[in-house]
Write a structure and sequence with these properties.
Immunoglobulin-like, alpha+beta, Pathogenesis-related Protein p14a, five-stranded mixed sheet, 381 residues, 3 domains, four-stranded mixed sheet
């Protein structure tokens, strides 16, 4: 079977969108992509949840297969701000029985039970062996169009609508110098809006929209905006530095690597190292294992409560504490995604915390291991 992409879709794959949430014409799926989409729907749909194929995500999935970058980069280039995502990328033969065979376990175990709402598929390459990409997201907020580039001193309105299960939205902004501010937008009947100011220097600003659901605070959207002259940043943000992934020798090694990356990032900003706490590590391991085995992703455990309750029950005496969680394929990729988020970067760069515990749980559900990370930062008493 020969797969060909139309000239329009090929152009989309090469040209980044100039704004988030632009209106987009329907993309034409190749026969192989239609076949793949039907196979995906048959595996992940339930009576209560039937994810919708999104043509923004089709564009992102194609970009994801065309290069070795992250799924987040593909989303940003396509003008998509959804934060919760499950990316899958692999090579498959068009003459095999089912295109989803190499990742069927991931679809049935990870994707199906993650309450994703939208997805996109993409297949690129020539010959029988093709690169296959899938991106699944849980869309918690629907945002209006927002530009990717502004001038220093500009103001721009960020507005959107929350899905009904979310409440108490917050907006965080990280400046090019990693100064992070938080504000509460106006909210009425599920619609929220806030005027944002871009006057803290030229360079990359990161905007984060978060809200609460039954599992605690969730990051819903992430937008990167360039302010001022292109590539005229006063400082290159550390969150764009990408460490090269190393082979995972053990879960202990993955936890140690995560702490090493955190301390390297803190050192770049002149902030002291955090020290390993075995008590924090134990609680982090328990939380990662529970999230992975119970099939949820959040700071508030349905069984053990929020962070403060979990630490108290675990006998960890602390003056303050915060937590990052992530799902990735390596400590390096998890770190890249965490430091791109203002709220997670704020925890990593907090000068008041002195200790850390990292817990990693691994599941082998496809071509690559699925790693669930919990990072607990604290000032211990």
């Amino acid at each position: 079977m020969l797969v060909t992409l139309s000239s329009a879709s090929s152009l989309w794959a090469r040209t980044p969108s100039n704004a988030y949430h632009n209106k987009r014409h329907k993309l034409q799926l190749s026969p192989a992509e239609k076949r793949l989409a039907n196979e995906v729907v048959s595996r992940i749909s339930t009576l209560d949840n039937k994810p919708v194929m999104d043509f923004w995500l089709v564009d992102a999935a194609r970009r994801f297969t065309e290069r070795d970058g992250t799924a987040r980069d593909a989303l940003l280039d396509s003008g998509i701000s959804d934060q919760y995502l499950i990316p899958i990328r692999y090579t498959a033969s068009l003459d095999q029985g089912r295109l989803i065979s190499p990742v069927e376990n991931i679809l049935k175990k990870d994707v199906k039970h993650s309450e994703v709402t939208h997805f996109g598929v993409g297949i690129t390459g020539n010959g029988q062996a093709r690169r296959v990409g899938m991106i699944f997201v849980r869309r918690g907020a629907r945002l209006s169009r927002f530009p990717k580039q502004l001038q220093h001193g500009d103001r721009y309105l960020l507005n959107g609508a929350l899905e009904e299960q979310y409440k108490n939205p917050k907006i965080l902004i990280a400046t090019p110098l990693a100064k992070i501010s938080e504000s509460t937008p106006q909210l009425q009947h599920g619609m929220f809006w806030s005027m944002l100011h871009f006057n803290q220097g030229e360079g990359r600003y990161t905007i984060e929209v978060q809200a609460e659901d039954s599992f605690g605070i969730q990051v819903l959207s992430l937008l990167e905006v360039w302010v001022g002259r292109k590539h005229a940043a006063t400082h290159v943000p550390i969150r764009r530095v990408r460490p090269i992934p190393r082979p995972i020798q053990s879960l202990d090694g993955a936890e140690e690597r995560a702490i090493q990356l955190i301390n390297q990032t803190r050192a770049r900003y002149g902030i002291g190292k955090v020290q390993l706490s075995y008590g924090l590590r134990r609680q982090a391991r328990i939380h990662s294992t529970e999230m992975s085995q119970k099939g949820y992703f959040g700071h508030d455990s349905p069984h053990r409560g929020g962070l403060a309750v979990r630490l108290q029950r675990g006998g960890v005496q602390h003056a303050l504490a915060s937590e990052n969680i992530a799902i990735s394929t390596s400590p390096e990729m998890a770190h890249v995604e965490l430091v791109r988020s203002p709220s997670h970067l704020r925890n990593i760069l907090d000068p008041q915390v002195t200790h850390i515990g990292v817990g990693v749980h691994q599941r082998n559900a496809g071509p690559q291991p699925v790693l669930t990370f919990t990072q607990i930062f604290a000032r211990l008493r």
